[in-house]
């Protein structure tokens, strides 16, 4: 069914979700001149919400792209971060990284060694803590709150509405702003239960961190040891524009939904971080001297098989479980799924948004050519 022009929406695309992927994709689409609207349960300013992962990220650019497509996305994001670091250093900052280990699992010669700056092997005297080897390079760390606020500000300046609404079904997004033909599904972990998607491959990757005040720590550290226990991670990420705060972590626990910090984990995180960077204690003698601002938990929206980025054509009005089911004539629409990136959201977001934009433009062009 093709709707008459008088019944069409004022928008070309509705983006469902306002996490980092939803915002970045909406930004890329609206920059082309498309009329875009965003519908989301959680908004960019909800920096204390435990219901979505974007506020709780580290965040930095440290790629673990496993194939050419993932590496292309990450490289594009890295290049844009470089430009952003020059204009907004309070959001993105270039700094030194040190990755260390006893048993190398490939980080001595990663694929991105020619993408980052000044990649080199560390001398033994430069390797902190109980580790024996490592590398140094320069990359970027982000302030996720400021980054998402920048994207949201840019969108609102273009007239893109960002509306708070909880939807129970994918079909609802096609009708909220009037009938649209394309919805971007950037619901993250919500894709597991959202009616019309219900993706069983989606799962939470629980990360617990601490935000600490350590203005003298300017290096980003990461332990990349092949013998690291499953579910454990050790990293230190200075956060730009935060008054000298640093994120220390952490965990990667598959399938765990709890958003409350665990006391034992909090202690382990601080101890492991102090072991490789005593400067976190601001002159103190132990991990107990670290000035903790907050303990945090975020549920990274991961997916078996990785990111889902594809167009799915569907027919509205046929699912009796949805609010629109059976109430209107069936019509053909499309959804661009864009979710399941897990812990790589920030390092890949701009590359994913660029790819999503191209998919959307091809689809819309094809649809218009049929009219």
Automatic annotation (TrEMBL):
One of its GO terms (molecular function) is FAD binding. The keyword Flavoprotein applies. The keyword Flavoprotein applies. Belongs to the DAMOX/DASOX family. This is Nucleotide-binding domain-containing protein. Its cofactor is FAD. Residues 12-355 form the FAD dependent oxidoreductase domain. D-dopa binds at residues 235, 300. InterPro entries: DAO, FAD-dep_OxRdtase. Gene3D superfamilies: D-Amino Acid Oxidase, subunit A, domain 2, NAD(P)-binding Rossmann-like Domain. FAD binds at residues 167, 187. Keywords: FAD, Flavoprotein, Oxidoreductase. GO terms for biological process: D-amino acid catabolic process. One of its GO terms (cellular component) is cytoplasm.
């Amino acid at each position: 069914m093709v709707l008459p022009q008088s019944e069409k929406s004022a928008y070309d695309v509705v983006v469902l979700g306002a996490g980092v992927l939803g915002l970045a994709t909406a930004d890329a689409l609206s920059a082309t001149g498309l009329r875009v609207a965003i519908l989301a349960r959680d908004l960019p300013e909800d920096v204390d919400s435990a219901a979505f992962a974007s506020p709780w990220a580290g965040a930095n650019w440290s790629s673990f792209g496993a194939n050419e497509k993932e590496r292309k996305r990450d490289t594009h994001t890295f290049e844009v971060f470089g430009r952003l670091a020059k204009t907004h250093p309070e959001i993105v900052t270039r700094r030194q990284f040190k990755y260390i280990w006893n048993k190398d699992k490939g980080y001595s010669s990663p694929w991105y060694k020619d993408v980052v700056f000044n990649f080199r092997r560390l001398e033994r005297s430069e390797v902190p803590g109980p580790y024996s080897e490592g590398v140094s390079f320069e990359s970027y760390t982000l302030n996720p709150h400021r980054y998402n606020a920048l994207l949201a500000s840019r969108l609102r300046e273009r007239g893109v509405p960002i509306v708070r609404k909880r939807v129970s079904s994918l079909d609802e997004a096609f009708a909220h702003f009037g009938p649209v033909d394309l919805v971007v599904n950037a619901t993250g972990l919500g894709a597991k239960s959202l009616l019309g998607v219900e993706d069983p491959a989606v799962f939470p990757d629980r990360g617990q961190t601490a935000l600490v005040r350590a203005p003298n720590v300017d290096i980003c550290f990461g332990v990349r040891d092949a013998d690291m226990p499953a579910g454990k991670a050790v990293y230190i990420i200075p956060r730009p524009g935060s008054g000298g705060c640093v994120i220390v972590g952490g965990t990667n626990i598959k399938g765990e939904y709890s958003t409350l910090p665990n006391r034992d984990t909090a202690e382990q995180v601080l101890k492991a971080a102090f072991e490789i960077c005593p400067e976190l204690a601001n002159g103190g003698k132990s991990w107990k001297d670290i000035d903790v601002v907050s303990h945090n938990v975020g549920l990274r929206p991961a997916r078996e098989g990785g990111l889902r980025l594809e167009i799915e054509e569907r027919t509205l009005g046929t699912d009796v479980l949805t609010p629109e089911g059976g109430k209107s004539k069936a019509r053909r629409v499309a959804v661009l799924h864009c979710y399941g990136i897990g812990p790589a959201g920030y390092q890949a977001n701009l590359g994913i948004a660029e790819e999503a934009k191209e998919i959307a433009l091809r689809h819309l062009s094809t649809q218009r050519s049929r009219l």
